Amino acid sequence: LDTVMPGLSLYDFGDMVRSGTNPAEEDELDLNKVGMRFDMYEGLYDGFISSAGSFLTEAEKDMLPFSAKLITLEIGMRFLTDYLAGDTYFATKYPEHNLVRCRTQIRLASEMEAQFAQMSKIIAGILA
Q: Cα–Cα distance between 41 and 8 in angstroms, integer?
């Protein structure tokens, strides 16, 4: 948890998937190392739904796969925005750090998109 406050469960789940399924660092230069480990996704979903499933609406449950892509794209755009604004929000280690982070997040979102149908099928199987 990087921010502890009341918020949407979809953001919590999405950010957990974003940070927990990618075997690469958030600022990995080699985009071939960036991806979504599907077995980790399945485990995270199973654990999340077993704990939070009782208070989530059906619509929230249905949106869980999308939430992972959404938060990943959002964080990527935040890195890009910060890079373009002169790196005023996120701490950086070198001049293109936020641009590298953006590229990593966009690659990860692309990997999620490629596996989206499978993500949705897992959810249907777990909920059934």
A: 19
Tokens at residue 115, please? Answer: 């596996």
pLDDT in tens, 28-86: 999 999 999 999 999 999 999 999 888 899 899 999 999 999 999 999 999 999 999 99
The number of beta carbons lying within 10 Å of the beta carbon of residue 73 is: 19
Q: Give the separation between CA 101 and CA 18, rounded to whole angstroms.
A: 13
pTM for this entry: 0.89
C-alpha distances (whole Å) from 48 to each of 24, 43, 78 are: 22, 8, 26
* SS3 call for 96: coil
Q: What is the DSSP letter of 23?
A: -
Contact partners, residue 126, CB within 8 Å, separation at least 6? 45, 46, 49
Among residues 107, 127, 125, the alpha carbon closest in space to that of 35 is found at 107
Q: Which two tokens stand for residue 104?
A: 């990593």
